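Figure 3 (text version): structure tokens given as input.
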């Protein structure tokens, strides 16, 4: 209730203060009066504060005024004119503080920068010049926005803002022109004429640069030789000229006479004069003297529910008509008339668009600060309320856009995005398995190298306190960084390769529990060990211990550790006792308490015998032979034996040797039933928590954390060899493996997943009635899967829902009404311009067009423009038939169509008198027959283009339109599918597509729906699957490559099938297309050797039985024999052919021996030599001993019992070292594809003499080395591709070039031996061929001037709706169709280009040429670098004069510029030709090779004329290129002491071959004498004087006379003989004589 009174009060106050301010302004004088012609000026200072009684009341304000001289110094006030003195005081109104709310300064935008540099500064411009910008500063009323007359209203509160500011401009750019064209032909063939040449503007002048010079050059032609015009040809020609149509108007001009032409003026002054009482009969255009009739039609339109009116005004236009002569002068109009020219027509009065107010600015598109400092933009719109009419410009823009938040200093930082990754998946082996690795595909356990995959997703970077798994995923397009690696190598540890030793010998029969011996049943065991073990699991190694039942088990035994010598009872020989010491040992040889041995303790003294002299001496019993490996049965039993030998025969009375059978003992072998048992263990089970052991957060040394202790179980079973599980009692319980062990329990791992993404956006566009609702989706990503009993992952990872129903698009349409009566130009106007008084001819008719919505409710016109297309035409031409014009009947109906593709016709006829008029019978003007094609609905399909690549069905049954975020979810699952099947599907059954064009009966392209198909043809296709390289199975190992020493053995795989269609490539093959594995081997150099048997007894011939006692037994030297067998190493039990063993190495089978006599000493065989030290020192010795078995009788001595020998290297002492083979190929586990493997090598022990010996010799010396090592085999990782992206939109909306595209990227490059990436990373599929409709503009017609010969006219071209196939070249083959097929909005845009004004010069007129082509786009540049966002182009029109008489009336040339994009920087340089006669051509050339005028600096222009100082005036001299005088060819320069040319002397040449310095000197002296003559033979210009020619002619005649006289005198003495004396040639040499 207080608002309205306040507004009224403010209005009253504002009116009052405006009145006061206006009053004060009326009293203000000029502040500064400047008189340039006067030396003294008045200066005024600023106004002081207004002095008044109170605020709001009037008062006065003052200022200082003083006089200054021309230099600005203060002077006496009497020197300045008193009349021009500014007012020092004025009335004012003292303002109040609240008055500041009434007024404000309104500031416009700064105007363009105008250069103000002086000419001197322009020449010195290097980079930029100074300029000035101005803007308007206006005082405005705040409450209504109107301007205040006086700026004092705002100055009272705030000083006015500055309206000028300095600015910088680039340096001035002078006009640059092209070179002149060739001269044109003469303007006429007889009489005086002109010819011209033109040039065009390449760069328009900018920033104060020099203006363009004339673009035309003319010269007279046909001068002197111009033929006279024929006598029968008229002296002058006449042409009817018409001017441009005037503006459309509806009111008349008051009577003021008529416009005529003064025929006495020439063509140079064609000014129109207005005379009130002119007597000149002819006229150009009569201006009507009566008021025109105001014609208007009222149309209705509604704006926001309010009924408003706008009118279509039909007016008229007129134009000037005159008759011109071919010499450019105007003549009477009657000389040109044939038919009455049309100089009036109806028109539509122009009407501007009616627009609504601007809407509010939209929010700025830049809402955050970024590093690129790019500005944001905001927009505002306005709607159209009324359309344009008549020839006016298009409606202004309905949308404005301006930058905002340019700096972005106060904006929050823009969100940043980065990649996050999920946890790595479990290690997978299956993706690495090849197609032909069947044994691995069927294996339940795979190990070795594999791959792990993970997924990447994009999140918004937030504060560090937010856990990464709580961040919400966003679309992947927001992350611009490098995608993290999604694949890495991994490995699953394979079980160790168990290389086992051979079984040991069966041990003793022992009790199951030696500490609790029960019964006589026991077990004996044998074992083996794992040799060459590398890191890995050993649970799968076979059992290492076997046992079998036995009887009489013994756990502890007495063992004799030492025996003393045999001590005879009589002290010399015979029976005696031998002491021994026994120890209780267990089965492992360890000493145990004696009470554990339950059997009887061995006797401490054993009876023995020491042979007496003469007794038989026997050797000790040999070891028992080995028992055969036979199991006991009823039909077989093994035995073992031992023997002893006679070392000395008995003497007389001595103890006899036992009989031969007693020399051999035998016994049965202890046999077993061959029933073997062992304990079998299963793998350890999972670790289960033990509640009694609750230690948490224990780390077991790797990256997996543990949570307490637990237990693991495994199954232990007693197994009978080659049978199966049996009762546990059959296996020794003491060696039963553990079935329970403690372990570390892994912690439970819960599933970790991200939150759902935001719902995808729904379409904001309105929908039609029958369109189904769209959907939106969201998804979440699993970061870590559950493990060890943790919380499972959710089942729902993808959600989809329908969008809210979008609003239905509004329905608007244009409603047209009946056409009104044809409106003609008013009769008064026709009479005023000399037209017919009959109301007929061409006119315009109008109709009403309104915008209606649903139920025909009137609506805003802007709604129809947005939803219903362009407004239908409201004005169209019409025609009212005149009485004397041809009359025709109405058109008949079209005839019936006969067939599809035929034509139907209609006719009309002439009526009345028109039948007899020749003009009316011209069919071109008045056609009597029309035809049009018959409608046809027959269509046919035609295949177009090639087939597309074979396309496989969409994943998960989705089409490209349904993919959306589902496709993104698929991309997150790409690696899991890749893990499952080893790659993306690349083969199999698919479809390929080909586009179908639907054509009508005329072959024009139509919508595929009319052919009842989708526009695509489908066909099954098959892409053969990739086939990996296929190799054969491994062959058997070959034999060792060397039969002696180190060698290798091989096994190979050979190529069976090459890789096909992108399969895994073959490994590197040899020349035989094989791949091989190598393993070292060693071949014993003596594989076959002689194995000798023990020596027989020593016998003496003749052989006598041992039991026969003789007085003197045989003794002394005898013979021993032994047998030999050829055997193979390792199989000594079997004899082979003797030829395999070397005969040179055959051992002796007989040898001499010494059989001691009864009285001799008998000793044992020599013992083994003691070992030499390992270093084999030269001072070291070895020894051996033997014992006395029978003492000798008296008189006989025993030989030595001890022997020593030095240790000699490679003779009696040896060193040992290992010899290692090369490493074998890297071998994998049978269940592995790649990864960690092992390689082996062999080892032998080499003696220092090079002989291979048993490895025990090297082991005793702690020698050795690794025989097995780890190695790596690279994994054949296949190429990993992303899923196909959804199909893109069609590349074109119509035509046969449209196609859809989908692509994929390489996520993981293939590893060595992996399947390579396919070449096809993108696929295309044709789109249905939709017809392309296009408004085709025809070629411009010649300039058409209605009813005249020259002057202003119009160029027209047709606008046709055509259908084409989409390609640019297809427009030439386009076909016309109905206009409703093309877009109406495009037609409205194109219609502005259907007519352009043009002009045809009359003969003799001086006119402008057509516009030249646009020049190339050129940037404003500095040092070759452009600045500014765009360049400029220029074009021009030059003046063409036709006759000399019209040159003075020629118009000025014109040029125009326009901005352009993609410009280049050009430089300009002076170019010169070579010198010729001290002159050369100089021109300016652009950097692209175009010769131009302008652009080059005139200060650097090279000279065109070469001049010397002083001038070259000497004979035979000229100015050289270096700027000094020189002599012509054949002359030598003689220079003065100052370096100038003195004169030119002739150089010795062909005519002075014998000339020398003396002759030259004489000539020079003669020339100096000639210079002193008065008569000089040569002029100062170097030319011979004319009198010299006369002198030479006289000399020539004289020579002829002398010759003739000599001939006559010598003829008489011709017959007389004369001897010619030879003359010596004269040779002159310079001797320094000056006189010569």
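Below: residues designed for each position.
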């Amino acid at each position: 209730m207080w608002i309205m009174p306040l507004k009224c009060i403010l209005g009253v106050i504002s009116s009052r203060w405006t009145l006061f301010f206006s009053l004060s302004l009326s009293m203000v004088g000029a502040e500064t009066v400047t008189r340039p012609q006067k030396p003294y000026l008045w200066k005024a200072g600023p106004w002081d504060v207004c002095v008044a009684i109170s605020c709001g009341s009037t008062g006065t304000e003052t200022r200082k005024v003083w006089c200054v001289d021309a230099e600005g110094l203060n002077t006496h006030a009497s020197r300045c004119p008193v009349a021009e003195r500014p007012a020092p005081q004025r009335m004012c109104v003292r303002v109040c503080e609240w008055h500041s709310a009434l007024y404000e300064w309104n500031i416009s935008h700064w105007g363009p920068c105008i250069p103000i540099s002086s000419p001197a500064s322009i020449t010195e411009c290097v980079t930029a010049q100074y300029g000035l910008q101005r803007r308007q500063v206006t005082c405005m009323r705040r409450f209504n926005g109107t301007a205040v007359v006086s700026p004092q209203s705002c100055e009272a509160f705030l000083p006015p803002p500055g309206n000028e500011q300095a600015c910088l401009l680039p340096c001035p750019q002078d006009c640059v022109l092209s070179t002149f064209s060739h001269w044109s032909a003469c303007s006429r063939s007889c009489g005086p004429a002109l010819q011209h040449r033109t040039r065009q503007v390449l760069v328009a002048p900018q920033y104060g640069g020099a203006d363009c010079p004339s673009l035309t050059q003319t010269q007279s032609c046909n001068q002197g030789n111009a033929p006279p015009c024929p006598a029968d040809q008229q002296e002058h020609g006449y042409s009817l000229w018409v001017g441009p149509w005037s503006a459309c108007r509806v009111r008349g001009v008051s009577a003021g006479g008529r416009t005529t032409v003064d025929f006495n003026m020439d063509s140079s002054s064609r000014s129109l004069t207005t005379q009130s009482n002119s007597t000149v009969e002819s006229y150009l255009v009569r201006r009507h003297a009566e008021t025109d009739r105001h014609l208007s039609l009222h149309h209705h339109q509604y704006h926001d529910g309010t009924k408003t009116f706008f009118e279509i005004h039909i007016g008229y236009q007129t134009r000037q008509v005159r008759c011109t002569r071919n010499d450019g002068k105007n003549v009477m109009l009657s000389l040109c008339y044939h038919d009455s020219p049309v100089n009036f027509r109806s028109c539509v009065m122009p009407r501007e668009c009616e627009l609504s107010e601007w809407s509010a600015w939209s929010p700025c598109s830049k809402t955050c600060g970024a590093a690129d400092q790019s500005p944001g933009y905001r927009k505002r719109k306005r709607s159209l309320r009324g359309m344009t009419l008549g020839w006016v410009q298009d409606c202004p823009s309905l949308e404005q856009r301006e930058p905002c938040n340019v700096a972005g200093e106060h904006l929050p930082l823009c969100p940043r995005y980065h990649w996050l990754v999920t946890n790595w998946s479990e290690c997978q082996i299956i993706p690495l398995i090849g197609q032909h690795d069947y044994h691995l595909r069927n294996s339940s356990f795979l190990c070795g190298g594999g791959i792990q995959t993970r997924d990447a997703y994009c999140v918004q970077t937030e504060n560090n306190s937010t856990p990464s798994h709580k961040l919400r995923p966003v679309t992947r397009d927001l992350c611009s960084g490098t995608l993290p690696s999604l694949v890495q190598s991994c490995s699953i540890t394979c079980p160790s390769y168990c290389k086992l030793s051979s079984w040991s010998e069966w041990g003793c029969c022992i009790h199951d529990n030696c500490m609790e011996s029960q019964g006589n049943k026991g077990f004996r065991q044998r074992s083996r060990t794992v040799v060459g073990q590398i890191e890995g699991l050993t649970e799968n190694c076979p059992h290492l211990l076997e046992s079998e039942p036995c009887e009489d088990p013994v756990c502890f035994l007495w063992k004799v550790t030492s025996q003393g010598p045999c001590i005879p009872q009589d002290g010399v020989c015979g029976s005696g006792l031998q002491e021994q010491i026994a120890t209780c040992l267990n089965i492992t040889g360890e000493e145990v308490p004696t009470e554990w041995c339950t059997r009887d303790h061995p006797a401490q003294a054993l009876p023995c015998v020491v042979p007496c002299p003469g007794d038989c001496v026997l050797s000790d019993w040999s070891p028992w032979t080995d028992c055969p490996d036979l199991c006991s049965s009823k039909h077989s039993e093994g035995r073992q034996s031992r023997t002893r030998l006679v070392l000395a025969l008995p003497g007389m009375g001595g103890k006899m040797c036992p009989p031969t059978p007693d020399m051999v003992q035998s016994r049965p072998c202890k046999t077993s039933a061959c029933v073997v048992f062992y304990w079998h263990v299963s793998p350890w089970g999972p670790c289960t928590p033990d509640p009694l052991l609750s230690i948490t957060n224990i780390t077991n040394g790797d990256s997996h954390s543990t949570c307490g202790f637990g237990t693991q179980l495994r199954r232990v079973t007693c197994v009978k060899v080659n049978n199966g599980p049996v009762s546990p009692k059959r296996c020794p319980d003491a060696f039963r493996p553990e079935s329970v062990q403690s372990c570390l329990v892994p912690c439970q791992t819960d599933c970790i997943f991200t939150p759902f993404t935001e719902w995808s956006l729904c379409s904001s566009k309105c929908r039609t009635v029958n369109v189904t609702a769209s959907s939106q989706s969201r998804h979440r990503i699993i970061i870590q899967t559950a493990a060890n009993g943790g919380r499972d992952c959710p089942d729902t990872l993808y959600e989809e829902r329908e969008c809210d129903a979008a609003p239905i698009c509004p329905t608007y349409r244009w409603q047209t009404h009946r056409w009104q009566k044809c409106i003609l130009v008013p009769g008064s106007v026709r009479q005023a311009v000399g037209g017919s008084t009959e109301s007929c001819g061409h006119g315009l008719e109008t109709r009403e067009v309104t915008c209606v919505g649903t139920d025909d409710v009137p609506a805003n016109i802007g709604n129809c423009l947005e939803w219903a297309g362009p407004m239908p035409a409201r004005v169209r031409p019409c025609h009212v038939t005149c009485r004397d014009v041809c009359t025709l009947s109405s058109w008949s109906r079209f005839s019936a169509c006969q067939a599809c593709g035929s034509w139907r016709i209609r006719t009309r006829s002439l009526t009345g008198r028109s039948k007899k008029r020749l003009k009316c019978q011209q069919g071109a003007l008045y056609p009597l027959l029309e035809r049009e094609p018959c409608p046809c609905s027959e269509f046919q399909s035609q295949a177009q283009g090639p087939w597309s690549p074979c396309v496989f069905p969409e994943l998960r049954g989705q089409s490209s339109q349904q993919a959306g975020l589902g496709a993104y979810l698929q991309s997150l699952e790409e690696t899991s599918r890749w893990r499952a099947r080893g790659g993306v599907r690349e083969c199999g059954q698919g479809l390929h597509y080909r586009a179908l064009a639907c054509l009508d009966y005329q072959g024009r392209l139509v919508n595929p729906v009319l052919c009842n198909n989708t526009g695509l043809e489908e066909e099954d296709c098959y892409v053969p699957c990739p086939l990996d390289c296929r190799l054969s199975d491994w062959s058997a190992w070959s034999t060792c490559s060397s039969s002696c020493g180190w060698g290798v053995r091989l096994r190979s795989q050979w190529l069976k099938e090459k890789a096909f269609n992108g399969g895994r490539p073959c490994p590197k093959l040899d020349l035989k297309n094989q791949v091989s594995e190598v393993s070292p081997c060693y071949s014993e150099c003596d594989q076959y050797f002689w194995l000798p048997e023990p020596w027989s007894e020593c016998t003496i011939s003749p052989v006598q039985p041992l039991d026969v006692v003789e007085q003197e037994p045989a003794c002394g030297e005898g013979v021993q024999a032994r047998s030999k067998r050829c055997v193979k190493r390792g199989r000594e039990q079997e004899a082979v052919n003797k030829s395999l063993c070397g005969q040179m190495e055959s051992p002796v089978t007989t040898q001499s021996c010494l059989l001691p006599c009864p009285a001799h000493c008998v000793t044992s065989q020599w013992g083994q030599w003691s070992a030499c030290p390992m270093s084999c020192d030269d001072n070291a010795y070895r020894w051996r001993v033997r014992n006395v078995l029978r003492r000798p009788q008296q008189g006989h001595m025993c030989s030595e019992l001890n022997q020593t020998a030095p240790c000699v290297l490679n003779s009696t002492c040896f060193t040992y070292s290992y010899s290692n083979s090369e490493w074998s190929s890297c071998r994998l586990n049978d269940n592995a594809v790649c990864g960690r493997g092992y390689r082996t090598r062999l080892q032998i022990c080499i003696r220092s003499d090079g002989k291979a010996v048993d490895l025990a010799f090297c082991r005793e010396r702690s020698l050795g080395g690794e025989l097995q090592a780890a190695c790596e085999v690279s994994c054949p990782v296949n190429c990993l591709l992303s899923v196909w992206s959804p199909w893109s939109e069609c590349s074109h909306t119509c035509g046969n070039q449209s196609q859809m595209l989908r692509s994929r990227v390489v996520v993981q490059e293939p590893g060595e031996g992996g399947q390579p990436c396919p070449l096809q990373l993108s696929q295309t599929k044709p789109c249905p061929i939709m017809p392309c409709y296009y408004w085709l503009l025809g070629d411009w017609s010649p300039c058409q001037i209605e009813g005249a010969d020259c002057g202003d006219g119009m160029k027209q071209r047709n606008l046709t709706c055509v259908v084409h196939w989409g390609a640019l070249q297809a427009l030439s083959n386009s076909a016309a169709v109905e206009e409703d097929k093309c877009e109406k909005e495009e037609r409205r845009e194109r219609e502005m280009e259907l007519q352009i004004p043009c002009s045809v010069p009359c003969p003799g007129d001086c006119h402008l040429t057509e516009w030249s082509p646009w020049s190339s786009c050129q940037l404003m540049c500095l040092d070759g670098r452009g600045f500014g966002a765009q360049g400029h182009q220029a074009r021009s029109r030059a003046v063409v004069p036709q006759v000399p008489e019209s040159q003075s009336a020629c118009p000025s040339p014109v040029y125009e510029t326009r901005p352009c994009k993609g410009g280049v920087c050009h430089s300009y340089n002076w170019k010169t030709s070579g010198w010729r006669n001290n002159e050369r051509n100089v021109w300016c050339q652009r950097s692209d090779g175009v010769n131009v005028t302008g652009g080059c600096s005139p200060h650097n222009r090279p000279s065109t004329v070469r001049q010397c100082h002083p001038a070259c005036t000497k004979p035979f001299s000229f100015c050289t290129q270096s700027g000094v005088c020189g002599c012509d060819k054949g002359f030598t320069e003689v220079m003065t002491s100052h370096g100038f040319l003195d004169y030119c002397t002739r150089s010795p040449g062909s005519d002075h071959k014998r000339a020398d310095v003396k002759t030259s000197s004489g000539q020079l002296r003669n020339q100096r004498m000639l210079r002193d003559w008065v008569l000089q033979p040569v002029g100062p210009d170097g030319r011979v004087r004319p009198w010299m020619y006369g002198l030479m002619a006289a000399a020539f005649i004289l020579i002829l006379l002398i010759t003739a006289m000599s001939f006559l005198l010598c003829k008489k003495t011709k017959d007389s003989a004369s001897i010619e004396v030879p003359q010596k040639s004269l040779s002159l040499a310079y001797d320094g004589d000056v006189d010569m």
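The radius of gyration is 64 Å.
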